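Hi there. Long-time user, first ticket. I'm pasting a complex I've been working with (about 722 residues overall). I'd like to know whether the download I got is complete or cut off, because the file seemed smaller than I expected. Thanks.
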Amino acid sequence: MTVESTAARTPRRSASTKSTAGKRTTARKGTGAAPGTDPQLVQLLTPEGERVKNAEYDKYVAAITPEELRGLYRDMVLTRRFDAEATALQRQGELGLWASLLGQEAAQIGSGRALRDDDYVFPTYREHGVAWCRGVDPTNLLGMFRGVNNGGWDPNGNNFHLYTIVIGSQTLHATGYAMGIAKDGADSAVIAYFGDGASSQGDVAESFTFSAVYNAPVVFFCQNNQWAISEPTEKQTRVPLYQRAQGFGFPGVRVDGNDVLACLAVTKWALERARLGEGPTLVEAYTYRMGAHTTSDDPSRYRGDEERLAWEAKDPILRLRRHLEASNHADEAFFAELETESETLGRRVREAVRAMPDPDHFAIFENVYADGHALVDEERAQFAAYQASFADGQGD
Amino acid sequence: MAAEKMALAKAINESLRRALESDPKVLVMGEDVGKLGGVFRVTDGLQKDFGESRVIDTPLAESGIVGTAIGLALRGYRPVVEIQFDGFVFPAYDQIVTQLAKMHARSLGKVKMPVVVRIPYGGGIGAVEHHSESPEALFAHVAGLKIVSPSNASDAYWMMQQAIQSDDPVIFFEPKRRYWDKGEVNPEAIPGPLHTARVVREGTDLTLAAYGPMVKTCLEVAGAAAEEGRNLEVLDLRSVSPIDFDAIQASVEKTRRLVVVHEAPVFFGSGAEIAARITERCFYHLEAPVLRVGGYHAPYPPARLEEEYLPGLDRVLDAVDRALAY
Ligand SMILES: Cc1ncc(C[n+]2csc(CCOP(=O)(O)OP(=O)(O)O)c2C)c(N)n1
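Hi, the file is complete. Here it is re-exported in full:
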């Protein structure tokens, strides 16, 4: 048996981060860069909750009120609570699968709250926080994970498209939708979410090409959570993802994805560009998937605990809490009230899932075509006759 | 390795291991095939033992995976690529259909394409959408591709060996819901040809023809029918392109009735092809029209409806009754 190992020749995480992310600073160590130490990382709140100045992006959050800050905090807490409840429901067998957003709350709430109602969102399958910002009832998200439908909401109801499981596909839909907005002469914008892994798909590259060529008002919001199931980001790219935009002819920026203020500011900037007819932007939210890829995944096979611990210290929720407390923008009563609200949400989600009925059998044949189809009609009739044969006691 | 009972997934793992050991040109490529060992653990431990240059975690790009496998094959390698789930093969469909399938013919036979595309396929595991599809007919329609699907551990082991040794591209559909079914694997045995069907249960009253995940279902059907005094023959086709029509014909000439069972939609499916050819070949032997049992002309439904959608015992038995009623 010839056993060949090239591990030594393959760039490791830290090595490639170093070679591609510019200057290495002393505070950066181990896997993944520590936010706050990367000169290319837009950050407005340090992990300790201190507000840092940023000449370029401060203006996008300059007018933010304490109430709005508390609102962002509330969004993140409730989203995390919803997510935890869904994970628990999966463990109890109520959901077939769950893709947790744990750790990505700031990236999703920050970007989600930057949007206007008339903007349009194209998510992947993990954007529960963005859905929350769009006013999609969180229980609606659970249907496909419970296996009662393959989508489950009207995308036009909240300008929040259906979850897309095939990696990267939706970035093209987003681009096309944005092209439509431009043709209509409207000033709405589109935001497309995708992961660091998805950035390798041809569809994503093609969406970059189309959006640049047609100057489409689309913001590509890549949540680089460091992992694509078991593959670290350096299995997808040798340059920091945000830099990719340059080659397509539009700007890219890396934002601290655990900093809700920075995500809000940078997304507002990118949306403003889109509205002004300046075309697409790539935002790379540098964050971390704290949990497993999905409930089917076992991260212990490919990553150690130290990495997670390092990122826990940069927890997006904790960070804003520290800021709120230090600036006296929130008191104990606020946090206590939120805790109660969070409990209520958890209960509501639990009850809603348990009450979710199995779909009617004939749903198989519903909406296969908008205009109908003779074959579907025929098969539905056969199916009905077959079902009836059981009811009559003739089937067995 | 002595003869051993093992799960179907493990049998593929052992087969890949053997291929990697015996031929330095064999490569395993795909998403998460390395450290994780694939989402189904089919490639478990291979990267540890053969290194990252033989067992390659690829970027998340199916077109890229198949496209580069074509290039590697042009350079003399024998890539075995994994598509993580059936529904994710379509980004690679262009490369498979327009390039992989046609390279040999276009080069006037000068170029060989020994690429194996492994696809865990089919339903019955309660997954979300795009994780349960049976797209074999979409590939079978394309000349230049060979398509096989094992139904048990031994075939999984041996058919994988043969697929890797084949100089033609082979789409290797792995019945994911049978991954955990155990069977005897004898690595010393001499396997039959890759594209021959096998009678897995002899019978006289009717032939059930199936492949991959539905073979087990058909054996259960035959067991249930036996209790009602029906003696069904079960044929494991093993290969969808080419199809062993001689074996089906031989069986149908004996039983005079044929029901084809697959998970994929019936409309324009492999059952349609079998029905047409067998009707032509066995017109005067048939006592009943060839019947098909499979999926509906509808998107693969959400998990809570898949039992209705997939051919199960009752639906196949119903078809058996109908065929026998002629
Ligand atoms: C075309 C396609 N290939 C493979 C998969 C299987 N798959 C689902 S999620 C995933 C990893 C995605 O990683 P990333 O894009 O970084 O997003 P994340 O899940 O980390 O948010 C893979 C390989 C898929 N859904 N679609």
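A couple of notes from our side: Chain B touches chain A through 48 residues (CB under 8 Å). The longest helix of chain B spans residues 8-22.
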